[in-house]
Design goal:
Helix content is 31%, strand content 22%. It has 451 residues and is α/β, with parallel strands linked by helices. The chain has two domains: 268 residues, Metallo-beta-lactamase, Chain A (4-Layer Sandwich); 174 residues, Rossmann fold, CATH 3.40.50. A seven-stranded mixed beta sheet has the order 6-5-4-3-2-1-22. Strands 7-8-9-10-11-20-21 form a seven-stranded mixed beta sheet, covered by helices on one side. The protein has a six-stranded parallel beta sheet with strand order 14-13-15-12-16-19, sandwiched between helices. Helix 4 packs antiparallel against helix 8. It is globular and about 65 Å long.
Length: 451
Amino acid sequence: MKIKFIGGAGTVTGSKTLIETNGIRILVDCGLFQGLKALRDLNWHPLPVLPSTIDYVLLTHGHLDHCGWLPRLVAQGFTGKIYCTSPTKDVAKLVLLDSAKIQEEEANKANKEHYSKHEKAEPLYTLQQAEAVLPFFKIVPPDISTNIASDIIATYTSAGHIIGACTITLILEGKTLVFSGDIGRDDDVLMFPPTKPLLADYIFLESTYGNRLHPDLDAKKELENYINTTIEHKGTVIIPGFAVERAQSIMYLIWQLKTEGRIPNVPYILDTPMGASVLDIFLQNMQWHKLSANDCHEMCKMFKIVSEYEQTMRIIEDPQPKVIIAASGMATGGRILSYFEHYIGLEKTTVIMVGYQAEGTRGRRLLEGADEIKIYGNYYNVEAKIVQIEGLSAHGDQQDLVNWLSALKNVPKCIYLVHGENLPADELRIKIQDRYGFNCNVPLIGSEIEI
């Protein structure tokens, strides 16, 4: 059996792991590269095998860095099945259509304003190509073994992280392979703790926060302080929110603070059409999260939910203090950039980062203290206060990742640490070896192993 790390190795984006077994090809996740230009350029490169020769895609969850390359895969000849849970199918549909729409809009804007380096800017894929993916989805129930091919059994178990997210256990050639996907936190605001694996010969474990512990701080209290301080100075709070799960977590905490009378009566705005649609997915899948239907409805009443861009412009032009949650979470595209164009240069603005910021993204540059950022070909001075609430990340930290291995009844032959930058992955390798004595390896992108 051969396993090739096409993406999500040495980086937290572009997750793609190719399995070749007995003439069958399986791709675990099919994500988009984000951040550094060298990585983004890989989105335009062909896969090392023809998409038409891939039989199955197994999706761990619906985030863009795990499903965002599917339109390219289908456009280049893939005709197999895409296995995932029901909420993941719904989330992936929203994510892919939103991604295509943003890429089309940005290509049109680049051509209209002539800031592209290319003679004609093209979207990575179109809305039509994103829609072409949808018929290939095949839903699998959680916790029940599914025969995806002769002698290949897949079992999806909850990984926390976001709604529908799962770890995938594959049994093939008499071996048990466990693909963690993104592991959620043991104490997440909305999601249940991830299910730990019991048996595995080989584990492919994410390592996003492999070298960090989430601070033991009250995220709700931090949010309260930042909102109150900013509003007192008649400023605006802008929260780049991942439209799936983080936006809902932040809404939930802000709703709690407002209900408890701890934050002022100003406009609270959710400006991500996809984030609004995800709320419907939460209501349709109550067994996947901690929110009650009543909490969900009451929370939504508090927020002005924006769908049209004309509304975004009216909000931007309104000088009154307000709190805005807008996508995307790493500020790589979407509505958040329109807010940044207007507010990032104002000292009384506070930008609150609430999730992982990959290398090369605007979010990462802001956290690292950039004096200016580039948006749509123009540079903007950064005068806003940039802060981070690490306690709101949807990823488990080093301790969560190490503990996730604690229920294993056997010693795996190897644990491959993926979906992490090299330093965090290597520090997690040392931690796991120190605690369990397990053999660990940090694969390089493009590398291949035989098992």
